[in-house]
Amino acid sequence: MAVNLLRSEKAHAEHLARMKVEDRPVPTCPRCGFVASENTTKYGLRSDCCGLWSWNRMPLADAKTHEARKHLGPLFSSLSQALGAVQFYSEMRKRVDMKRAEEMTISTMNEVTAKKFRAAAEDLLMEMMAGNVVANAPKSGTAARRK
Prior knowledge:
elongated, 3 strands, 10% strand, mainly alpha
C-alpha cells in the first residue's frame, strides 16, 4: 500500500511539473491537510504551511529536501551542457534506473531521490574528468553551421 501511495504521489508531482504555474492547484500540506498559504515574491509564487514550503505551486517540502535539491540545478546544467541533453539524460537513466526524463524534475524530488541523483551526477562528472565518458559528436552538421 505504501509503495502504491508513493508511486501515485510521484506521478502527481510529475504531472504538476508539466503544467503551467497558474493552472496548478495550490498545494495541500501533507502534515495538517490544509491548503497552503501563498505569497507572491520577486522570485515567484511561494506556498507554505507547517514549516514546509515550495515555489510555483509544486508539492511542499521541508528544509532538508530543499537543501538536498539545491546543488542539482547547477550540476545538471553543467553536465547537460558538456554532454548534450540527450546523452546526459541517457547517462543518468543508466545510473539511477529511471524510465523517463520527467523523473529528473528537481522540484518534484524528495530528499532521498535528490541525494541519489546528486551522487550519480557527481559520479558521471568524475568519469568525464577521467576520460571514461566522452561527449558524443553531433549527429548532423548543425553545430558546424552555427559557427
